[in-house]
Amino acid sequence: MEFPKHTSLEILAQIGVAGFLISLVSSLIVIFLSKKFRIFIDTADSAKPQRFHFAPTPRSGGIGIFLSFVLVGLAGLEHTPASLYFLAGLAIIFFSGLMEDFSASLSPKARLFIQLVGVGVGVFGMGVVITDLSPVVILPYGVGVAFSLFGIVGVCNAINIIDGFNGLAGGICAMAFVAIGIAGAGDMFVLWVCVVGLGATLGFLALNFPKGKIFLGDGGAYMLGFILAILLAILSQSDRGISAWFGLLVMIYPVWEVVFSIIRRRLQKQSAMQPDGKHLHTLIYQKVQDNPLTAVLIWLLNLPFMVLAVVFMHEAWVLIGLCGVFVVVYSGIYFVLSASIK
């Protein structure tokens, strides 16, 4: 991908600041309008088991991040078909969640269908079908298509699952943008999107962490998951030798949270899709009784693996081994906390 061709550090800094300011100002406006007109409000007295706040709060922080990508992207990206497909897919994914945030409840099947359409626009429009999972397997193209579509949709929903505490999902995504931006510094599209994404996410976090004045919402969580997964798909196909397993290690916390939750619910004979309050972050919260501290502890758990992912981005077996180490560490912490809380 060839956009933009001549981007200096000064320009990158400017677009990062632009993303930050657009996101911050938009979020401030959204907070005001949400409270004035009682829209996008997440009340503290609903029955959702994953809720840990105590005041009605707007769940529409994704609007500012979305506007950052649209305004900065349209102003700065070369309007190639690939960039337009990226923005189109991003918009579809975002609005699939925004409808939920606006209380226009969608059935799980309808939401999945819309997400698959949005991801399909990005995957096929940008030509980022993942087939190379060396050294484990090379997927046939058809299998790679299914893997790419459902894998990216899975990451979208994984970010949504970890969006439970002030700064948690936003902080993990900000760290991922940094890791992907460093790894993909030779690809101007990847670098450009990472800088905008980091700036926009920090603009949201300025109001979300630590006080929780606004939440990311389904739209924001799905959108950030889509962006990160698409960037990782691009890097897996680059000529820089970056392993596809780099992407798994960068996203190992939200991905394993989903996989572990499905396994746990199946063993307990519960619906795999039914939300509950038994995630690692909820167990940590029950021990520390501090919303922002819970996010910080999860950040600290992830930080070493993000750093190691960048250090060993060309070493597939090392990356696979580190994914295994994370699974062991996560599972150990989970079972210790679970036993102590009982």
Can you walk through the features of this model?
The protein is mostly helical. It is 70% helix and 2% strand. The strands form two sheets. The chain has a two-stranded antiparallel ribbon. A hairpin with a 3-residue loop joins strand 3 and strand 4. Helix 2 packs antiparallel against helix 7, helix 6 packs parallel to helix 8 and helix 11 crosses helix 12. The chain is globular. It starts with 8 loop residues before the first helix and ends with a helix.
Secondary structure blueprint with pairings:
Layout: H1 9-37, E1 41-42, E2 57-58, H2 62-76, H3 81-101, H4 108-126, E3 132-133, E4 137-138, H5 141-161, H6 168-183, H7 188-208, H8 217-236, H9 244-250, H10 252-267, H11 280-288, H12 291-311, H13 316-341
Antiparallel strand pairs: 1-2, 3-4
Helix pairs in contact: 1-2, 1-7, 2-3, 2-7, 2-8, 3-4, 3-8, 4-5, 5-8, 5-10, 6-7, 6-8, 6-12, 7-8, 8-9, 9-12, 9-13, 11-12, 11-13
